[in-house]
Queue: 2 jobs
Job 1
Amino acid sequence: MAYKISLIPGDGIGPEIAEITMKVVEATGVKVDWEVVRAGVEIMAKEGTPLPLGALESIRRNRVALKAPITTPIGTGFRSVNVAIRKELDLFVCLRPCKIYNGVRSRYENVDLVIVRENTEDLYAGVEYPQNSKESQEIIRLSNSKIRECSAISIKSISAFATERVVRYAFEYALRCNRKKVTAVTKANIMKCTDGLFYETARRIARNYEDKIGYEERLIDNMCLQLVQKPELYDVIVVPNLYGDILSDLCAGLVGGLGVAPGANLGNDIAVFEAVHGSAPKYKGLNKVNPVALILSAKLMLEYLGETNAASRLEQAVSDVIMEKRCVTYDLGGTAGTKEMGQAIIEKL
Ligand code: NAD
């Protein structure tokens, strides 16, 4: 039986990497009936919105989607189509494994950590007021002179509800994947209410796992230092939205760059798999960029579907091609194109 899966080809380099990724999935032997749905800047011209209802309905119906990157159109009212998809479908976990493959250009060895980023709140919720607006004036008044007059204001919100579910996911993931430790990261020494609530909730959840999975806390600034000095010390990292966004790129840098960094957005029963990188418009149509980040996102998708054998064969094929260095893209020090690197992975499979 074939899995029915929504496929969003996206913008910029999206369609090229999506096409080769579909072929790689086919080469694993797992049968997929792709339902191709459009979202992004190109569809906006036709339908007046970068996120047509049909795209969301398809993902809701199929429950699983593979999504190539989408350009954030400027001046549409959409802060980001990607953020809107996560919000509409309540995909509250952003999972970003960062693992080093032999042969990538990196200063490090033995990095194998996973970022579990909260995906629905924090400063990403988009509650912002321009300077001199009625709302910002009101908040400035309430702040008792702590906020300067004429400030623009963003609201940071952290709830026990959202923290609990993402921390629980991090511990369950650690159990399932034989991980040893969860590190919660915040700036709770300064943001005592919001990040303090994140820690308080994380500690409460951690108690349920204390005989099985270790728990520790780090402040975000110290975590950045630790990650560039001793990344091998870290395992599963659970983190509020904005710090998670920044740490994900930092960790992608540890393991060879955006070309090899996969991701997944997960809700209770819907999952959207996508690379960490964006649509890199300057490389559009050049057959130049690395398809591995989306291919490894498809590997996460196969695991999610329970196709663990196909997923590990796919990862092995990617790892072999990277290690041999004969057919890799520019970011890994080679001269191969997107299609050629994808084809090399298919041949390994
Ligand atoms: P980007 O990730 O698209 O590209 C930044 C640079 O990273 C590129 O110029 C390139 O040098 C490198 N890079 C990215 N992907 C690569 C790959 N597969 N192989 C090799 N090198 C790669 O970031 P940006 O330029 O800041 O954003 C471009 C657009 O993408 C923006 O509109 C942004 O909003 C959007 N975006 C979308 C997503 C998403 O769809 N999830 C994520 C991030 C950014």
Job 2
Amino acid sequence: RTQFIANISHELKTPIFAIKGFVETLIDGALSDDEVNMEFLKKISHQSNRLENLFSDLITISKIQSKELSLSLENFELNDIMLWLKDTFEDEANQKGLELIIPNTKKLQVYGDKVWLQSVFSNLVKNAINYTAEGKITIIIKKFNKQVKIRIIDNGIGISNEYHNRIFERFFRVDQARSREVGGTGLGLSIVKHILDIHGSPIRLKSRLGQGSEFSFNLVIN
Ligand code: ADP
């Protein structure tokens, strides 16, 4: 717990001091310097986004860890989440020149907490977009017996073997600078793992450096 708080303080430090620095420079005269003022404002905006992402992930972690957390388990249409992913991420992916391939899973009902599972998908797809420079992100869904196997595949930068366990730890990033650049908090995968754990569904990773990554898990059909 103490380590966690030390980590949070460390994570807060950079964006807070950066924002403070840029604002003070603007006040001290840079505001009327058209060569730099817009650039500073964009930097302030980027750092504020980082703070917002961190705040939002910390709220999620505190909810997951609260003793009162009870899952709202229900049968729901997996396609609702697929449509939501399309709405939420397609433009962002396309703007980066990436193809986002999301299947139509009409009439496939799975059992779980829809809101929390939506957050699992959202984190995995967001990462796939963030860590892929060109190519595509594909979701593949296959039904077998009373289960559904879900795979989120990208052909991005990949993750070398030595980090396959560590990336699920809070605040661990393979490349700090890269994660910060994309507004990452280092908390997404720990949230994903936690949510899937309480669904009794382990997260699996296949990835090779430079070749891409595949995150997969199963959901049950009730
Ligand atoms: P972040 O906010 O940094 O993305 P995550 O907990 O979501 O934090 O992921 C932890 C780290 O795992 C990332 O910083 C990145 O190094 C690595 N990672 C996660 N997803 C992918 C992916 N699809 N491809 C390559 N690396 C990834």
